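Write out this protein's structure.
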Amino acid sequence: MEFYQDRYRGSWAQPYLAGRFGADITDDPDIRPGYAPAGWTSLVAHLHRHGVNNDELLASGLAVTASTGRLIDRFRDRAVFPIVHDQQVLGFVGRRHPDATDLDHAGPKYLNTAETLLFHKRAQLFVAGARRLDAGGIPVVVEGPTDAIAVTRASQGRYVGVAPLGTNLTSEQATQLRRYGADLIIATDADVAGQVAAHRDYWILTPQLLQPRYAALPDGSDPAELLATGSAPQLVDALDQARPLADVLMDERLTNLPPVEAALAAAPVIAAQPVDTWEPSVLAVADRIGLDPDIIRSSVTSFIRAWNNDPARVANLQLDLASQVRDRLTAVANTRRWELLANEIDPRLVADPDWPQLAAAFQDADPRWLRVTETIAVALEEGPLSPDLPAADLASRLKWLSHPEPFSDPVAPMALAAPDGPQIPERQYLDRGPMSP
């Protein structure tokens, strides 16, 4: 760690990270940033001079064996952060040069220490300020190291960012978080992947008797971006306003599923909560979807018995449903994405009951054409939309343009070669002008 820290000043990593975090973090005791030089054996040679042998270098994960058989540094030309547990440095996570890409053979964007006797990726967390957690800081689970640093710095240590190391949150990491109490927050990115990660985290944390809250970040943002763009107050405000993650999960189910399915899907979420929340949650669900509370109460009771018997099994069954949650959240995101365009075309579209199907048709047409607006323009050339079913009408036109029906008449394919052959149906031959040169 000292080797990397000594080479941080004057490297590209210093101004790069200063720009990401809005200040020079060189002397930040919570982060202790470093720089791994670009040379092949800078660290290996340094540690050799201090009496470290090759077996120890390999065992510590600091070096790897090259194709030539010689030992080379694992981290090269990277901004480096130590991974610390109980005040011991177990390994490092390194961020490659921002101008490097996968095509440059520079390795992954973030590189962790390899698995060693000390470091196990699924069992460790990157913590941006362990001493602040020990002093009562509230842990905030985020997606990556820079997000974790952003949380700690934006809140001046009142909240402390913690991040899994290239994996989803694991039960081993949840066990570590339990030592800091139940008042932790999930602040994953404000996109579908981040929302799905938050849903997964609920089922990882609740078997450890943790009741996480959820911070809703502004759309399309993450903690590091908010700090870099001068929006640290928005980040802190989102953390201050965090609400129970259980409520977020139930809202998703009650909003995106039919009433009976929603009640059944909400039952295990309720069962995983503390006992004093069971009845208020049952009544809230019943009131929202208009079902008899006894029906919901019966379903919740069954899940409570299962949870008391084997919480890990119930949680794993819910984790298996993550793809269904992703599909629902993706459909919602696509619907919101196209609302502005739909309002420009015809204000009736978004209010139409068939609007979700039309939004799906917009999404389906998008990758098949350079611009979805051009696709819509062609569809509207057929005339005004149906006065009663405008969304269904436009969805049908877009579907046909994206997936034209094959000729049903066996003679029809010959129509272009036979002047007196049958006429090609108008919707199967649209005059879109001359072909591109």
